Amino acid sequence: MKKHNDLKKIALGALALVAFAGCSAQNVEPAPEPPRCELNANAVCASAIENYFAAEAVRPAQTTPSNSPHLVPLVAPVTLPGGEVVAEVDCYVNVDPNGSWLVYTHVAIPPRSQQALEHLRNQDLCTDEQGERRLAMESTLYNH
After folding, report:
1. Distance (Å, rounded) from C-alpha 10 to C-alpha 39?
2. What pLDDT does residue 58 have?
3. What is each CA distance from 19 to 6, 13, 14, 25, 53, in whole angstroms?
4. In 3-state terms, what secondary structure has residue 94?
5. Beta-ladder partners of 71
6. H/E element holding 108?
7. Which long-range contacts (CB under 8 A, 24 or more apart) does 84-87 make?
8. pLDDT per position as a tens digit, 88-117
9. Are the C-beta atoms of 40 and 126 separated by less than 8 Å?
10. Domain-by-domain residue ranges, the chain?
11. Residues facing residue 102 across a β-bridge
């Protein structure tokens, strides 16, 4: 009889332990996800395009300027003040005598460190959108 009572106590103790574990697991909330930074590739490319046109303005004029649009690939790194690359965007721009527009963007090197994320946020280069932007969602016209 004593053996039967001991088994009953063990079974009730195990049941209480499982019930307690189940209740405590339900009350635990997951840790909040750290703030994300989706790199605003269009903003990074806008800066690269401005730099491209500034460099083109100081180059000697071509003998025969093109009258039709041509695609210009640009690589736009984002760096910390010390020069460390924290992100990089590939930008493709149609250049035309009447204006230019962004055709395609691709985040080639996404930000990986907390320092990189903070730098991008401080530069207003983060968006609230989810997912990497592979195509320019809206055409951006640049007059030069």
Report:
1. 57
2. 73
3. 20, 10, 9, 10, 69
4. strand
5. 94
6. strand 99-109
7. 85/109, 86/111, 86/113, 86/115, 86/116, 86/119, 86/120, 87/39, 87/44, 87/111, 87/116, 87/120, 87/125
8. 999 999 988 778 889 999 999 999 999 999
9. yes
10. 1-30, 38-142
11. 93
Q: Tell me which residue has tokens 């951006």.
A: 140
In percent, the amount of the chain with pLDDT more than 70 equals 60
Comparing C-alpha atoms, which of 95, 99, 106 is closest to residue 39? 106
- 85's tokens: 């690359």
| 95, 105 contact by CB (below 8 A) | no
Structure tokens given for 14: 């195990």
pTM above 0.90, yes or no: no
